Each structure stands twice: as C-alpha cells, then as structure tokens.
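Example with several molecule types.
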Amino acid sequence: ETGVTQTPRHLVMGMTNKKSLKCEQHLGHNAMYWYKQSAKKPLELMFVYNFKEQTENNSVPSRFSPECPNSSHLFLHLHTLQPEDSALYLCASSHGGEGSSDTQYFGPGTRLTVL
Amino acid sequence: AQSVTQLGSHVSVSEGALVLLRCNYSSSVPPYLFWYVQYPNQGLQLLLKYTSAATLVKGINGFEAEFKKSETSFHLTKPSAHMSDAAEYFCAVSDPGGYQKVTFGTGTKLQVIP
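Resulting structure tokens for the full complex:
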C-alpha cells in the first residue's frame, strides 16, 4: 500500500451504534488530520495530531473521539451520532515540523451515513 | 483570519477550450496557496502549491496558477481542457506560521463538454 489509506470506504450506522474509522499513512509523515466534507460546505478541519500529540480540536462534539497510537495510524471513534453527521470523512497526513510548506496528502475518505 | 473565495460553484467548458477557475484569498500575512482536485469517490489530490517562490506555479496535468498579490488572487488555468479534467477543484490557503491550519474554499465543479 502506498500513500494514505482509509477503511472502511463506506459505513452505515444507527444513532446508537459505536464504530471506528481507520486511517494509515505510508509516507513517513509525522502529522495526521481528520476532515469532514459535507455537501455544499467547505472542508472542515476536525483534529490535528503532530508526533502522536493532539494539537488541534476544532470544537468537535465529543461524540467524535480521535486516537493516534503512532505516527502512521489515526482512528476516529464514533458513538451516538446524529443524522447530520453523515458526510465524507477524509484523513490526511503531512511531513510536520516547522519551516516547511507542509503539503497535506489525502486518503480516499470514508462515506458515513447515519440513520 | 484567512479565507478563500472560489467564484462559481460550477464551470462548464468545451473540450479543448481554456479552463479558468477563480480563487481569491484573504490573509493577514503572505500566504501559502494550494489547488487540489477531487475526482468522484476519491480524496483530494494536490495539483500545485505556491510558497513564496515563483509567482507562476506549474502543476500536474498541465495546470498552472499565478499568484497576484495586488489582486489577492490565485486563479487556476489550463490552456486546453480534456474530458479527464472533469472533477471538483478546491483552492486553499494557509498561514506559513500556522501552516497546518489550511482553509479550503467551497469548491468548483468543472464539467467538460465533448
């Protein structure tokens, strides 16, 4: 596998379910990101991790819980979601560290539908 | 705060015609600017980026963009559209000091008519 991978690609869940999204990067990067992409809205940054430490939480509801066990893996744990949480969830990674343009590389996304 | 405005949520061009996708930015400091492309059911792919070097930036697939500070613009162009260019394009801006906080525009869907 190369680049940034995400599993599952599609997920349908009820509001009372608990599920997790997984992201893995094979680029040797140190920063990882979760974004939410909803129809007709700009891409929304949710969380940023640098060297496994969370450095950004963009006022995300607590029903979304990120986990970054190492620099290559990022999870997004989901519980008691609402229908308005249905969206494409994108993971990205970047080199990290100051002094660079730090281009972000994106995975293919997980299409989440909350019933 | 930084922001990006993409004029036109949908643009249609004929195959072989010039592609022009508009992006204007707002930033309190000299920004980094990016164009990404998203094909259906895929993530975003970097087309090109401006990081304060040459103002005319060449990217992949024949695209280029010119940074114009006086106009606060970073429009994306391609001389001749190809059917495979049909996708959604996103302009983005980041503050070099807070480079990890990238602000994206709302996107422009490009339709290429045969």
